[in-house]
Amino acid sequence: xxxxxxxxxxxxxxxxxxxxxxxxxxARILQLEQERDAALAHKRTPIGDSRTTHxxxxxxxxxxxxxxxxxxxxxxxxxxxxAGHRLEPAAEPDRVVEHAxxxxxxxxxxxRRQAVAGTSVHQVFDLPQxxxxxxxxxxxxxxxxxCQRTGRAMPPPGAEQPTQYGPRxxxxxxxxxxxxxxxxxxxxxxIKTLTxxxxxxxxxxxxxxxxxxxxxxxxxxxTDALYAAPSVCCDETGFRFxxxxxxxxxxxxxxxxxxxxxxxxGADATEAMGVLPGYTGVAVHDHWAPYFTFTDCxxxxxxxxxxxxxxxVVARDGARWAQNLKNVLYDGLRLKEQFHDNGxxxxxDKTAAIIRRYRRWIRAGYAATPEPPxxxxxxxxxxxxxxxALLDRLHHHQTATLRFLHDPEVPWSNNQAERDIRPAxxxxxxxxxFRTETGAQEFCAVRSYLSTTAKNGIHPFHAISDxxxxxxxxxxxxxxxxxxxxPAAA
Length: 490
Hints:
Blueprint lengths: L2 H8 L1 H9 L1 H23 L96 E3 L6 E3 L14 H13 L4 H12 L5 H13 L2 H13 L2 E11 L2 E9 L4 E6 L4 H7 L8 E4 L12 E4 L1 H15 L2 H20 L8 H21 L16 H12 L1 H4 L1 H4 L8 H17 L5 H19 L4 H9 L22
Parallel strand pairs: 3-6, 6-7
Antiparallel strand pairs: 1-2, 3-4, 4-5
Helix pairs in contact: 1-2, 4-5, 4-6, 4-17, 5-6, 6-16, 9-10, 10-11, 11-12
């Protein structure tokens, strides 16, 4: 008996397939391949894909990622009424070059003695050559006839050494390194290419350190301004340095950005920022539990996060209630854009209608989602599963989820915080992580300054130069007095 006969003798099911012929064998092979592919897809994305979870796009079973951007009904490109822009001619050019017409372009006749009838103007906007401008400060020395001692005039700030680089070149180095995440070596190479002077990587690090050290008044004023804001957006993201796990936190508004690196992700780090302790405005964030431990303030939940999770429920279960609940949140956003963006409150009947629909689809979600089977002798709180956990959060945090309907100062989503913290992720993709905790703290201080000044229309060169001169730009003094009884910031 050969090996095949031995297998068929043991496996009656395989013997039956052989008896049925080649078609039955092929059908069984295809069925097994489909089952294998389905099992692999389920194993790779057990709770969704990169659109609805934190899973990377490389784990998606499909090749093309679908966008979550909502259709606006408008064509792509410039919209009707868009002002547009063009390169406008300068009224007073820096340099004028005359081009004489010496011969006729038609017959070649000599025109050098002919009077000029008019000119056509062609302006070229270009960068000038950028050699460094060297300013020499000559400090007089004199001998006093009274005490016979020799004195010397003091050099101005920024010229203390016999030779040193000035504030604008320092600002360029810091702006490239922190503002655009250019590594030290490449920053030095760019400066040499532009100016012809080779600067060291250590000098660039010193510029960053000096800038961060000059920003203490700015960080204090920024924290006070955030504390006085009617609402703030909060978020956090992980990063690594020296093999350790750290967290970068952000607290921001449309005009302010405060970044902080900390060893912890939860309430300890948020307390260290010095904004939420004692804050009585509205904190906008995701469902990360430590935010809710700050009870002096009201809370609003990011609806963009909820929409992504509801998308995950639709993708997994095809749940109609999840799609309808998404529509409720989007309808609330349209009401906010229609009324709050025009300085008007949302009518009470429209708000009540949104709340009724919200509660209706929450109840439908509970009815359509079975309770997980209980596990006897299991320790701890029984697991609810992704869908029921989402429903629980939507139910228990209804006030925080729909707060945007009642308060014009509360945004619909936490996207501002995500936009402000995203550059940190870009930096980590470039450098992989910080080498020291001090470097991460310096980055957060300078990045907070650059982001805030950019939001307020301050030129980055002027902002950094003023900071290095001991005059950092400060946000307007807060008139809110809520901090008077607040605990001191850590």
